[in-house]
């Protein structure tokens, strides 16, 4: 099972949490909210089945 998008999303959530918890001042693009939103987008793609590695190629017998 390919869970690459979910793992990347989890890492981005961790980075967003660290930025927020440490109160690190970053530029306008690399804020904790923006990192969290990218993580949510990747998680939504994972839940939708994008990047899961499964393809409808017919039934195996």
Description of the molecule:
The chain is mainly alpha-helical. The protein contains two helices and no strands. It has helices spanning 4-22, 32-48. Helix 1 packs antiparallel against helix 2 (32-48). The longest helix has 19 residues, at 4-22. The chain is elongated and about 55 Å long. It starts with a helix and ends in a 13-residue tail after the last helix. 11% of the residues are buried. The mean pLDDT is 81. The chain crosses the membrane at residues 37-56. Keywords: Membrane, Transmembrane, Transmembrane helix.
- Identify low-pLDDT runs: none
Secondary-structure element sequence?
A: HH
Mean pLDDT: 81
Q: Which structural class should the secondary elements be placed in?
A: mainly alpha
Q: How many strands appear in the DSSP assignment?
A: 0
- In angstroms, what is the radius of gyration? 16 Å
The N- to C-terminal Cα distance equals 21 Å
Instruction: Quickly count the helices.
Output: 2
Biggest sheet, in brief? none
Range of strand content: under 5%
Shape label:
elongated
Helix content: 55-70%
Helix-strand layout with pairing:
Elements: H1 4-22, H2 32-48
Transmembrane segments: 37-56
Keywords: Membrane, Transmembrane, Transmembrane helix
Summarize the structure.
Keywords: Membrane, Transmembrane, Transmembrane helix. The protein has 61 residues and is mostly helical.
């Amino acid at each position: 099972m390919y869970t690459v998008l979910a793992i990347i999303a989890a890492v981005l959530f961790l980075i967003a949490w660290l930025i927020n918890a440490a109160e690190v001042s970053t530029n306008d693009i690399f804020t904790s909210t923006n990192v969290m939103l990218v993580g949510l987008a990747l998680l939504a793609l994972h839940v939708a089945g994008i990047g899961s590695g499964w393809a409808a190629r017919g039934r195996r017998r």
